[in-house]
Write a structure and sequence with these properties.
The protein has a domain of 54 residues. It has one helix and three strands, in the order ββαβ. 9% of the residues lie in helices and 22% in strands.
Length: 95
Amino acid sequence: MDQNCQHCGELIIGDAYRVTSEDQGITLLDLVVCSLCFMAAKRLGLHAEEIDLRSKCVFRPKPASDSEANRPPIPAESGHHSGANRPPLVGVRLS
């Protein structure tokens, strides 16, 4: 499974690492990174550990049951118009 580093954006080749940081039990940072970003995190004193992307589901895909059809409609706010009843654009040049 190809994954990109969540810090630099490069494709993770070889080992992947999880870099985390917490303060008073609140997670401030939780990234899956490449080896270069792992070394930079260690130099900064952040907690980092090697992970196996092949055996763990690190990135969760959108659930199959999460579809637009299952969601209730979002009510229109006052002052907003939808599609056909939208007032014409005035002073906007369409080219």
